[in-house]
Task: inverse folding
């Protein structure tokens, strides 16, 4: 029988070790029951959230991690505005032009666009307390990952629950992550995708190349952290002014 208090202390220590280096404030509550650790609270950055989840999963005796961590969003515009921003990103992006789009508005699912002549799936968008939930189906893992990042870009987004199914199913791997991040960086108006090299090994992304500012360097790293199922990011981008 595992000592519950001991596991909680070990998880707390692992999280503290993993996220303290970023120098940001994070308030993470930890509970443990029957092998499942639940993390609750607010963190300052997407990297702190993912590092905390990975650290908790690596503690002996932990068989599952339930994620209730939210990224601090500061002054938010409200769920309606966040939902509208997510939908606009999806409506405008060329890779979703044949994808049906629906939004949950005041408890009712409203159609914003029907699937095109060559349908590539249907996405439903809902927002609750800054948490964006994407459901439905898309035709590739790259589409799933890209949709998730577009949701993260919306002002007021505190978390993304990416429940999009991929039909037909695909086997995930590091090459898929690289392909998806290429799409994301090409869609990001604040980075020069053609100057950034991407590698991935065991779900840890490495960025290499040159950028024109620290802001662009941080933006590219954040895009990588936003990707579904990415566990770590190594940022080797060089700033050349």
Result:
């Amino acid at each position: 029988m595992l000592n519950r208090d001991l596991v909680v202390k070990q998880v707390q220590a692992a999280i503290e070790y993993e996220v303290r280096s970023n120098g940001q404030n994070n308030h993470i509550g930890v509970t443990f029951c029957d092998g499942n650790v639940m993390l609750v609270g607010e963190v300052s950055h997407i990297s702190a959230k993912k590092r905390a989840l990975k650290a908790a999963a690596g503690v002996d005796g932990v068989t599952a991690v339930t994620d209730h961590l939210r990224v601090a969003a500061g002054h938010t515009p409200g769920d309606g505005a966040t939902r509208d921003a997510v939908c606009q990103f999806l409506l405008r992006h060329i890779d979703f032009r044949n994808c049906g789009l629906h939004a949950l508005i005041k408890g009712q699912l409203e159609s914003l666009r029907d699937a095109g002549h060559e349908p590539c799936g249907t996405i439903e968008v809902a927002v609750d307390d800054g948490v964006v939930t994407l459901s439905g189906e898309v035709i590739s893992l790259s589409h799933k990952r890209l949709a998730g990042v577009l949701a993260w870009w919306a002002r007021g987004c505190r978390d993304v629950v990416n429940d999009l199914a991929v039909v037909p199913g695909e086997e995930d791997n590091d090459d898929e992550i690289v392909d998806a991040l290429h799409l994301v960086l090409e869609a990001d108006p604040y980075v020069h995708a053609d100057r950034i090299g991407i590698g991935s090994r065991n779900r840890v992304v490495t960025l290499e190349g040159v950028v024109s500012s620290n802001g662009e360097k941080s933006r590219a790293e954040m895009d990588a952290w936003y990707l579904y199922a990415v566990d770590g990011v190594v940022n080797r981008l060089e700033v050349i002014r």
